């Protein structure tokens, strides 16, 4: 089931097939009957494929947020009766005999490597920034490769790189090696989200593409929620234990990808690999006995040639470049609030311990997933994204203004974060519908990394605010940028209920998406 080719079929890989004719001009018209069952519902093998593929987001979320616990600054206490030592003291100005950590030094990299007294703020934030820089580079490189080497292959290598790097992190002995490996982990992680979204949507019929695209977000939320649980039970052990407990199961998952997940038949057909696509569609778990489609009909879908690279397409097609830039701008604005609210305000406003507050922040993503899951087939993409972005931005601005009223501030904060979560989920589904198969993986990956970039900029902007007055100004800027960037999607075409093109040639000939 895992491989899209077999030795018997590989001998015919170079066989010539008739070119696309008018009757079978749409890949969707050919493939959808293979996916549909007699009663029009999604088949259980397709559900299994979607669940297995989406499970990658579970491990991706763990590695994204693991530094909340491994890089946390531990609590400390005074061990001396010296009046100079109290709870408000700066430990860097105290002698080592006057204070001590509440837990063993190996519970955090900060205490183990004495990072708390480094004067350079760059070094203190190096591990976190290295991970996100790796995500940005990986999104640009691996996202493009996903459209060339396949969705499944890219998902496998992305998970493998992230998992192996995380295992080696557990054996690092200084912050430099640790940061370098976090960069590599982020590099691999960048390929996972877009590959999951695209592979899931291309593994089912058109009717269910929107809904299955949300399963990855649910798995990501579940992975985020599981992290504080694992961290709590390992709180008295080395921070290395948390890395091993999250990365070793991910290695086992990589084997499941290799042997239990099949390649996207739509991607195979878009590359002219008719034999391999036919083998996937006619395996026992996808074959629909009520369908009379055969190999001869499917062979008409062979493309006359491969699409050029993403860079060439963007340089040649200014309209596609403009759409991508608008989607990137919207993603960046949403990312400002998606990461800015929990990192800049969330944990500070909840008077709870780190495990419970992180779990509550993670649980906020669950209702946003449910809303997108049940309404994705009914709501219009553009108007919904505009409304969510404006709501998130306005609530984010009011959040700091209402700092004297804690209950109101918390409600505004949660509303802003909830709106950003929902907008984030919907934007990625919208992006996958907006671009043709040949560049879909790259486009989704680039927009995803724009959200990550917003997460990099947001905490820096908030920290630069300094005192309370400047923080109000910082959040005003964040709110205005989020609302403005979200409104840019009005210049993108609406995709709800429209047929999505599979390649650039089809986009030119049919204009699958109506431009406005």
Automatic annotation (TrEMBL):
GO terms for cellular component: membrane. It holds the Pfam family Sugar_tr. Keywords: Membrane, Transmembrane, Transmembrane helix. Residues 49-497 form the Major facilitator superfamily (MFS) profile domain. The chain crosses the membrane at residues 126-146, 153-171, 177-200, 212-233, 239-262, 320-340, 352-376, 383-403, 409-430, 442-460, 472-492. GO terms for molecular function: transmembrane transporter activity. It is a multi-pass membrane protein. InterPro entries: MFS_dom, MFS_sugar_transport-like, MFS_trans_sf. This is Major facilitator superfamily (MFS) profile domain-containing protein. It comes from Solanum pinnatisectum (tansyleaf nightshade).
């Amino acid at each position: 089931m895992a491989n899209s080719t077999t030795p018997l079929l590989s001998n015919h890989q170079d066989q010539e097939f008739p070119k696309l004719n008018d009757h079978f001009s749409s890949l969707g018209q050919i493939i959808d009957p293979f996916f549909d069952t007699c009663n029009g519902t999604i088949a259980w093998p397709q559900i299994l494929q979607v669940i297995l593929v989406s499970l990658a987001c579970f491990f991706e979320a763990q590695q994204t947020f693991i530094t909340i616990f491994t890089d946390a600054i531990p609590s400390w206490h005074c061990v001396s009766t010296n009046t100079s030592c109290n709870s408000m003291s700066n430990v860097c100005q105290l002698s080592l005999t006057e204070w001590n950590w509440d837990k063993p030094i190996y519970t955090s990299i900060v205490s183990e490597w004495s990072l708390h007294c480094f004067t350079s703020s760059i070094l203190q934030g190096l591990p976190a920034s290295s991970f996100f820089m790796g995500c940005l580079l990986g999104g640009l490189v691996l996202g493009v490769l996903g459209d060339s080497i396949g969705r499944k292959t890219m998902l496998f290598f992305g998970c493998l790189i992230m998992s192996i790097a995380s295992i080696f992190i557990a054996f690092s002995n200084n912050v430099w090696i640790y940061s370098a490996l976090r960069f590599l982990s982020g590099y691999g992680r960048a390929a996972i989200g877009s590959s999951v979204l695209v592979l899931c949507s291309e593994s089912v019929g058109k009717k269910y593409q929107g809904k299955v695209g949300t399963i990855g977000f649910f798995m990501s939320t579940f992975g985020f929620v599981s992290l504080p649980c694992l961290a709590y039970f390992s709180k008295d052990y080395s921070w290395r234990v948390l890395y091993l407990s999250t990365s070793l199961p991910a290695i086992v998952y990589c084997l499941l990808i290799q042997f239990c997940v099949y390649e996207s038949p739509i991607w195979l057909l878009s590359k002219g690999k008719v034999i391999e696509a036919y083998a996937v569609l006619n395996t026992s778990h996808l074959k629909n006995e009520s369908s009379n489609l055969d190999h001869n009909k499917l062979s008409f879908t062979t493309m006359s040639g491969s699409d050029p690279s993403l860079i060439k397409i963007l340089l040649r097609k200014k309209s596609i470049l403009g759409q991508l830039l608008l989607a990137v701008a919207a993603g960046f604005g949403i990312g400002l609030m998606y990461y800015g609210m929990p990192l800049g305000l969330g944990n500070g406003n909840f008077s709870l311990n780190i495990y419970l507050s992180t779990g509550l922040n993670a649980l906020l993503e669950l209702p946003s997933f449910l809303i997108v899951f049940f309404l994705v087939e009914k709501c219009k993409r553009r108007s919904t994204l505009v409304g969510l972005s404006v709501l998130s931005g306005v609530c984010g601005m009011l959040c700091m203004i209402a700092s004297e009223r804690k209950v109101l501030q918390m409600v505004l904060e949660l509303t802003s974060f909830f709106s950003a979560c929902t907008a984030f989920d919907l934007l990625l589904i919208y992006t996958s519908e907006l671009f043709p198969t040949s560049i879909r993986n790259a486009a989704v990956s680039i927009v995803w990394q724009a959200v990550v970039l917003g997460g990099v900029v947001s905490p820096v902007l908030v920290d630069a605010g300094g005192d309370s007055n400047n923080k109000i100004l910082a959040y005003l800027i964040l709110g205005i940028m989020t609302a403005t960037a979200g409104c840019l999607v009005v210049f993108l075409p609406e995709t709800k209920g429209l047929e999505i093109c599979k390649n650039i040639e089809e986009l030119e000939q049919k204009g699958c998406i109506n431009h406005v």
